[in-house]
Amino acid sequence: MALTRVSLSCSARLLPSPLLQSLLRPFSSSTSPLRSSRRRSSPIAAAFSQASQSPHAVREGQVTEAPMPSSTRPWKPTCLYYTQGKCTMMNDAMHLEKFSHNLMMDLPVNALAADKVKPQKLDYLLILDLEGKVEILEFPVVMIDAQSMGFIDSFHRFVRPTVMNEQRITEYIEGKYGKFGVDRVWNDTAIPFKEVLQEFEDWIGNHNLWKKEQGGSLKSAAFVTCGNWDLKTKVPEQCKVSNIKLPTYFMEWINLKDIYLNFYSRRATGMTTMMRQLQMPTVGSHHLGIDDSKNIARVVQRMLADGAMMQITAKRQSATGDVKFLFKDRIM
Ligand SMILES: [Zn+2]
């Protein structure tokens, strides 16, 4: 049984109020000393970064409507310190007002829909949507129960490139995350891929999905990706760059596009196409990995409720490294 812990631990520290006052002062981000700092920030620096941004400046992605049954709850951007277990402002009412600290609210389950789910072979689905073309910049995973469709937990880390020089990283991050207003939280929190995987292994270990001593693939669980790129191409490439042996839990996965094609008998080349065809609104910022993972998780919930079976679509042979695809009809 996996733990049904909802969220990552988050140090809820109360800042002394004069300090808090000074932290909340408006200032220009371009003059912030934090901007050029590449070290992981202190909890206070993290609080500073988040508190200093207006909600509009923080996440100006393609916000549409919230997936709530009730229209009373306004959509809020998720606190990206919180998703990484690094929010220090859990006692700050203003901060809580501006940012969501509950991923479950973005993935509500309708009990009637959950009743329609067919018996699944897998217990848990780990929806993964990497960001970063040159090197991985973000590693977001949303875990849902395959049978009840309920949100169980998430694992989210921003990833600091291994071989790219500082100037290139700065340009890359400003270009990619600046438009969402989350380049500062990226700079405050990003850690190397090797450390991300160590923390991820602790996380899957805590959920009893994998044990380092035993190796092998995930137990009663599988990654779900939108396409084969994440696990066929990008993770092995990043492992080479980071000088890591490809972990055994990355050897098989579910390509949602193939499940979608075989279940609905229609092609969808990406997440937004699926959502358009299913008449589901996208939520959050497209190409912010944690938001895309939540949107893909919502597509998975919908497909489960429609009667789809989630099963492995690709396996990598450990001897040769070749990937074998298990479905005849698939998106090329
Ligand atoms: Zn927070």
From TrEMBL:
Keyword field: Exonuclease, Hydrolase, Nuclease
Pfam families associated with the record: RNase_T
Coiled-coil segments on the chain, per record: none
Key word Nuclease present: yes
Highest taxon, organism lineage: Eukaryota
The name this protein goes by in its record: Exonuclease domain-containing protein
Annotated ranges, domain Exonuclease: 124-309
Residue span of region Disordered: 49-72
Lineage of source species: Eukaryota, Viridiplantae, Streptophyta, Embryophyta, Tracheophyta
Cross-referenced Gene3D superfamilies: Ribonuclease H-like superfamily/Ribonuclease H
Family matches, as InterPro entries: 3-5_Exoribonuclease (IPR051274), ERI-1_3'hExo-like (IPR047201), Ribonucl_H (IPR013520), RNaseH-like_sf (IPR012337), RNaseH_sf (IPR036397)
Ranges annotated as spanning the membrane: none
GO molecular function: 3'-5'-RNA exonuclease activity; nucleic acid binding
